[in-house]
Amino acid sequence: MTRQALTTVEADFHERMHAAQIHGLWELASQMTRHPEPKAIAHMWKSSLLEAMVRESGEVVPVGEERRALQLFNPGLEGRWATTNTMIAAVQLLLPGEVARAHRHTPTAIRFIMEGAGAYTAVDGERVYMEPGDLILTPSWAWHDHGNETDKPVVWMDGLDVPLVQALNAMFFQMYDVPQVPLSKPKNASVHLHGHVSLNPTWVKERPRSSPLLLYSWETTWQSLNALRDVDGDAHDGVALEYTHPQTGCSLLPTMACWIQMLRPGERTKAHRHTGSAVYYVVRGAGETIIDGRRFAWGRGDIIVLPSWALHEHANVSSRDAAVLFSIQDRPVLDALGLYREEALGENGGHQKVISSFAA
Ligand SMILES: [Fe+2]
Ligand SMILES: [Fe+2]
């Protein structure tokens, strides 16, 4: 309480109230914050650190019952299994000849391929083959295993809505009884059926909540970005494209959106903030993101966390090459619940004053 010392009568009342698992709203008023005050903080994992840890994990840790995936814990979340309040990002390594055994869970997963080509994720009996820059989906409760039959390691970023599913007490997990789910569909079947821009197969009546297209290839993504390199784009995000569900045009997953955004050489966006958190992966290029006045200088392979309601602006520091950011965002949840809010920074020409720099 902010008031002066309690009288004996008041103190006695509070003690008995608390013992009965009751609290007064007058004691909790500070939690009705004027705006979001997330515990998650802006943070960055440099690619040099991630690459070294990944390499070492391959030497030290076998692929056992669980995946060899390094989970990125937000330093503000007190050891919780969470990169933001709603999402976990991880970096996973699968060595030549390895299989990560089949399981399924209610958290939804995406994989963004960082390194290595020709390994696969099998989703409900379909092998989805990976190339660097590809986005692969594992919808909620779909059986999945991973295999690497190539002679090179494969590394990808996982993004899952684990903290959200935990907060909703909706976690279910199940191991498949043998290491791999028998194949029931041809390789990349979902691309064959659903991978046609603006053309949907009319005979498919099922409308799953998650995109039925499981693979969004880097080739098409890069073609689209390139084709748009001379448009104005968004003042806050540059040429930002959202991967969509081919049948509905909505976010590809109910709880997570995936974006790819290009910052042209020398481009500097204006600052804004919004509810919802994001995790960025630097696909190519070099630049900086200013988050609440702190500079995060990034390069290829770095992973950066943006908490809810933090001011942010991005810049490509190269005068020659494009920079590309992939991100996962919890925006669909905020939209669905009517909690999305956004505001632009008005002062200082829309740019923040940089007061500190992140040092890894
Ligand atoms: Fe999984
Ligand atoms: Fe933003």
Topology of this protein?
Elements: H1 8-19, E1 43-45, H2 47-60, E2 69-72, E3 88-94, E4 99-105, E5 109-115, E6 120-123, E7 126-129, E8 135-138, E9 144-147, E10 154-160, H3 162-167, E11 173-175, H4 189-194, E12 215-216, H5 218-227, E13 239-242, E14 257-263, E15 272-274, E16 278-284, E17 286-291, E18 294-299, E19 303-306, E20 312-316, E21 323-329, H6 331-336, E22 342-344, E23 356-357
Parallel strand pairs: 18-23
Antiparallel strand pairs: 1-19, 2-3, 3-10, 4-9, 4-11, 5-8, 5-10, 6-7, 6-9, 8-12, 13-14, 14-21, 15-22, 16-19, 16-21, 17-18, 17-20
Residues 103, 105, 109, 144 line the site of one fe (ii) ion (FE2).
Describe this structure in words.
The protein is an alpha+beta fold and 360 residues long. The chain has a single domain (43-357), classed as Jelly Rolls, CATH 2.60.120.10. It is built from six helices and 23 strands. It has a six-stranded antiparallel beta sheet with strand order 1-19-16-21-14-13. Strands 2-3-10-5-8-12 form a six-stranded antiparallel beta sheet. A hairpin with a 2-residue loop joins β6 (120-123) and β7 (126-129). The relative contact order is 0.15. One fe (ii) ion binds at residues 236-237, 272, 274, 312. One fe (ii) ion is lined by residues 236-237, 272, 274, 312.
